[in-house]
Amino acid sequence: MSLLAELAFVKGHGTSNDFIVYNNENAKAALSIEQVVALCNRRSGLGADGTIGAVRTKNIELAGIEHADATWFMDHQNADGSYPEMCGNGARVFARYLVANGLETTKEFTISTRGGVRAVRIHPDFTVSVDMGKADVPNPELTPHIRLVTGEVYESVGVFLPNPHAVCWVEEEVLPLLELNHKPVVDPFDAFLQGVNVEFATVTAPGEVVMRVFERGVGETSSCGTGACAVAWAARRSAPAHHDVDSWRVRVPGGEVIVTEDLQTGTFVLRGPAELVARGRVLI
Length: 284
Fold this sequence. Notes:
- The protein is mainly β and 284 residues long.
- It has helices spanning 33-40, 88-100, 225-236, and strands spanning 6-14, 17-23, 50-56, 72-78, 108-113, 116-122, 127-134, 145-147, 153-155, 157-160, 164-169, 185-187, 197-205, 208-215, 219-221, 247-252, 255-261, 267-273, 275-283.
- The chain is built from three helices and 19 strands.
- The strands form two sheets. The protein has a 16-stranded mixed beta sheet that branches. Strands 9-8-12 form a three-stranded antiparallel beta sheet, with no helix packed on it.
- The mean pLDDT is 96.
């Protein structure tokens, strides 16, 4: 029998998109894919949409990633152990974790991610803002079809923020009925070589949108921060009446977030809650 190690963790969530956060400041205790899968299992593990290791940037070198002045790297893995470029909800939880544990002493700082360095700000109401950067729109534009297991086919528009997203517009009454327990099929299959998050959304009023999401590496989640930004990006461009709308209230199954787009620079800011709900030790 192999010896079991203990991992100290904090459980947190952003609009019910939940994460297991742990300290790996010396970069010597990263979780394996098998450990991430086991921990994120909602029956036999702790249950989460992903894990986040807190690594001091001075202790890690990753090809193609510049840490700039960030002290901490957000080492995020999806529930299947894969590595996404960025996680908006996870970044908010990560910021709360760093401050709550005295690893950051101010309410405004930067964090390093696989998608770049991001500025974060913790507000007095404990919501957190994250600078999500700019949308990267493929040229020519990606417009693959998305087919659900039940047979429905939807047109989509592709955008990277920096995760790959395919945004589909659906009728409001249809949205809660969509079968998202199975992975949607993308046609053409090679439209997104690294996989894709698929959002289904409805604009309910100028500046207001409701969405559901199937995240690569996880499945349907209660919220997706980069997905909310992708939907806001697509919503502003969906009709002439929306072209000057720079702030969107995005409702997700787990709550709501605010996405603001600087119409001059094209930069997005995501603001929403970040809750730390438990701490403990788990056998790995």
